[in-house]
């Protein structure tokens, strides 16, 4: 059953995340995007354009977290997935926004590791806004995380700390650390917020949304197959570029072919 718009928006405002209980992106769009993802990982670019310069390049170590920036530039089927109108509709219900624009996209492919061997790629606890000084601090920014594979509890799902978004930025987060326990011990949550981890378990085409200040991270994948997703960074009409900062992640913002507006009821 669909929750009412008020309930969805209230849940997100209170807890800092929302996990849709039904797949949002149609299966054919997800399948095509999965093929596109594998092609981009091989360095095959159907659009003729490369993704943005990325930490992981075709041919790199497949036991590492594969993170490719702006893969939508390189593949039209990925673009169709990240720009899907259903994503815009739900993002508007979650945030109450009048306009939603994609401003950055990451392809995330986390390989499965043998649970008998310690270690494997993980994503350290962090708040997205700590990496976004290109926007003014009060800008309404959030992330839609679209599952392309079945994200089971064993697949190293993203997890959110409910209520952690309430007091803005705090110290200690690090996306690039694999040691989630160490980060947990050093991070001081806003007063009155207890440490609780809510995993984002999603079927292919499922989506979760999180606020720019929500603490989140993900552990290792022991599911036996790769965890595949796109993290889609979004802005609403209540967002402003920081005039004092160089534009790197925001350099394509005026090009709506690269950074599509996926909802507009202004
Ligand atoms: O994929 C993950 O586990 C983390 C992704 C993330 O940090 C994000 O979408 O903001």
Automatic annotation (TrEMBL):
This is Phytanoyl-CoA dioxygenase (PhyH). The keyword Oxidoreductase applies. Pfam families: PhyH. GO terms for molecular function: 2-oxoglutarate-dependent dioxygenase activity; iron ion binding. It comes from Mucisphaera calidilacus. InterPro entries: Phytyl_CoA_dOase-like. Keywords: Dioxygenase, Oxidoreductase.
